[in-house]
From TrEMBL:
Assigned EC number: 3.1.-.-
Pfam families: Hydrolase (PF00702)
GO MF: hydrolase activity
Organism for this UniProt entry: Streptomyces cyanogenus
Name of this chain's protein: Phosphatase
Alphabetized CDD domains for the sequence: HAD_sEH-N_like (cd02603)
Origin organism lineage: Bacteria, Bacillati, Actinomycetota, Actinomycetes, Kitasatosporales
Ubl conjugation found in the keyword field: no
Gene3D superfamilies given in the database record: HAD superfamily/HAD-like (3.40.50.1000), Putative phosphatase, domain 2 (1.10.150.240)
SUPFAM superfamilies: HAD-like
InterPro entries hit by this protein: HAD-like_sf, HAD-SF_hydro_IA, HAD_sf, PGP-like_dom2
Length: 212
């Protein structure tokens, strides 16, 4: 029988990541119009999310495009990572930890170069699940179907045996289109109920996915 599997997103699911307003504060500090930081940095952010740029070059581009000195770059990137990493969703993390041994466990995350090192140090997600697939390491972001294929292949499971959990509806829809079952994360209680139902039912026929 195929292994039952649960694959989770990180930001907004395993991490609680509300907006901190850091970008606007930097724009005010630098006397830049609203939206200037993202406008100047958009291609760098995109490159970092698929690993076509390293952390050193990110820092260099921040310095050049925003005209910041080295200490300012460090402070700017610290603010970026503070929002990116958020705080741990302790309740859900504890629940997932209790699933180890009862199913295959993985993470599929749209990420940014440097995320693995920081999330491993802070949250030990590498000890929570069997495999973490980061977009900046495979060069592919959700909702590209190849991202879901990579997650399933790495865990050696069939898509129809997997429940994918994400806080973005577009990624949930894409996972279903890739043959997985999927759940839109809105709160811990409903998510844990959905995982429990998935595990109780065991592997299902592809395309059969109860609501939620």
């Amino acid at each position: 029988m195929a292994a039952t599997c649960v694959i989770l997103d990180i930001g907004g699911v395993l991490e609680i990541t509300p907006e901190t307003g850091w970008v606007r504060r930097w724009e005010e500090r630098l006397e830049l119009p609203l939206g200037t930081v993202h406008e100047r940095m958009r291609d760098v952010w995109q490159a970092g999310s698929v690993g076509s740029i390293g952390e050193r070059e990110v820092h260099q581009q921040v310095a050049a495009r925003l005209r910041l000195e080295a200490p300012q770059v460090e402070a700017f990137m610290a603010d970026l990572w503070t929002e990116y990493l958020g705080t741990p969703n302790e309740e859900l993390i504890s629940y997932v930890r209790g699933l180890r041994g009862s199913c295959r466990l993985g993470i599929l995350s749209n990420s940014f170069v440097g995320a693995r090192e920081r999330e491993t140090a802070l949250y030990h997600f590498d000890e929570l699940v069997e495999q973490i697939v980061y977009s900046h390491e495979i060069g592919i972001e959700k909702p590209d179907p190849r991202a879901f294929e990579a997650a399933c292949a790495g865990l050696e499971v069939r898509p129809e045996s997997c429940l994918f959990i994400d806080d973005y509806a577009g990624n949930v829809e894409a996972a279903r289109a890739a043959g997985m079952q999927a759940h839109l994360f809105e709160d811990n209680a409903r998510t844990m109920m959905r995982i429990a139902a998935h595990l109780d039912a065991g592997p299902r026929v592809a395309g059969v996915d109860p609501p939620g």
